[in-house]
Design a protein that fits this description.
By secondary structure, this protein is mainly α. The protein has one domain: Four Helix Bundle (Hemerythrin (Met), subunit A) (Up-down Bundle). It contains five helices and two strands; from the N terminus they run αααββαα. The longest helix has 26 residues. It comes from Pseudoxanthomonas winnipegensis. Belongs to the DinB family. It holds the Pfam family DinB. This is Damage-inducible protein DinB.
């Protein structure tokens, strides 16, 4: 899972670079929607990080009442991505299938394995980066080509020569 979380960090960084090209004065609604979507993905990441640690997360919902600045959110997401990369790098393989019980923000109980939580974090973030990509297109901005295959070939150039 280390490569997958490396990809997540890289794709998030690519998305923040693209988000910086939206003119918030010209596209205020789209800019806010894009930042709120990325903030939602970040909050969900932090909620599930707390679940993985058996800790309280302190969130009452899956987004914050206030919209953060783009730079503050970029820094928070980068720190969260670094946490996940460290977490999966040090997680024992047998721990992936251990169940984790928790409460969702609506108060309902839930149980998922660590592997399921980690997959959810990856899939959820990718889904919302796709949403933000559509917002970028609405604003006439280029969307990042943030596919896993591009990441693998950028981070391991030897793959272009068939070296794995």
């Amino acid at each position: 899972m280390e490569k997958q979380f490396g990809y997540k960090a890289w794709a998030n960084a690519e998305m923040f670079e693209a988000l910086a090209t939206i003119d918030p004065q010209q596209h205020p609604a789209q800019w806010k929607r894009a930042v709120r979507l990325m903030n939602h993905a970040y909050v969900v990441d932090r909620i599930f990080a707390a679940h993985l640690q058996g800790a309280a997360h302190g969130y009452q919902a899956t987004n914050t009442p206030d919209t953060p600045t783009l730079e503050a959110l970029r820094e928070d997401v980068a720190a969260s991505d670094a946490w996940y990369r460290q977490y999966v790098a040090t997680l024992e393989a047998g721990a992936l299938h251990a169940p984790v019980s928790f409460s969702f923000t609506d108060g309902e109980a839930g149980t998922m394995t660590r592997a399921e939580i980690l997959f959810h974090v990856l899939a959820h973030g990718a889904y919302h980066r796709g949403n933000v990509g559509m917002v970028l297109a609405e604003c006439g901005c280029d969307r990042p080509s943030d596919t896993f295959t591009r990441y693998l070939h950028a981070s391991e150039p030897g793959r272009r020569q068939g070296i794995v």
